[in-house]
Amino acid sequence: MADVLSVGVNLEAFAQAISAIQALRSSVSRVFDCLKDGMRNKETLEGREKAFIAHFQDNLHSVTRDLNELERLSNLVGKPSENHPLHNSGLLSLDPVQDKTPLYSQLLQAYKWSNKLQYHAGLASGLLNQQSLKRSANQMGVSAKRRPKAQPTTLVLPPQYVDDVISRIDRMFPEMSIHLSRPNGTSAMLLVTLGKVLRVIVVMRSLFIDRTIVKGYNENVYTEDGKLDIWSKSNYQVFQKVTDHATTALLHYQLPQMPDVVVRSFMTWLRSYIKLFQAPCQRCGKFLQDGLPPTWRDFRTLEAFHDTCRQ
What we know:
Elements: H1 2-7, H2 11-37, H3 45-77, H4 103-131, H5 159-172, E1 176-181, E2 189-194, E3 198-205, E4 208-216, H6 237-252, H7 259-271, E5 296-297, E6 304-305
Antiparallel strand pairs: 1-2, 2-3, 3-4, 5-6
Helix pairs in contact: 2-3
């Protein structure tokens, strides 16, 4: 009984009002049925008209009676009490200036977007896990008889482990030399020299590649104080194109569970530029297009394409 009083609603009158609504709907339906049926079951026209008018008036009186009863019961139902224990959340809808501080509507919108983001993130995670083993370049004849060792799951890998991975990759490609340095602590920086074609500065965080800068073989890759220059771009447009493609490759080769596979796949893809100025485009067959050689390398087949021919 205390709950009924706190709510402020007469539950008995509320139940009677629901019954009155049902009765009103029935009486209104009878009015329309009467209009639909029209004048029937009388021999003369005058008799049919009188019977129709009488029946129609009775139905209208029923509608008026049920409507008055519903209005009477609605006054007896009462109003809900506004003193519900909403705590601080009840103040959100009482924002006096909706145009300037629409906090309540923004929170509702943020909640909807959060649910959508969580749902789509779950779908994307499932799809990426299914395709994770396909996101690696061909090993170009490198034997893979042994399974890779179990990798550490933490993002911060010991420097000795990083050095071991880089040295093994360095031994895989005789025409590619990798020089590792740590000028700023534990983070490694690689200077990759690919034959006499180009040099690549690879900035790493633990065993994860952060960014790359590709320059020509004869270009200076050091600053005035003798450190690797990780900010200056190449002076040649062809190596600027290769830098952009290398950034795209970093986004493609992503496998956080096995970071050494990512580095090895990226280096395999980078090794395909050993014939940057010798391989023709696989689509148009030309060596030069707009004064540039085919700078794009396919992530799976490592075939050469011009930037405009790869679509």
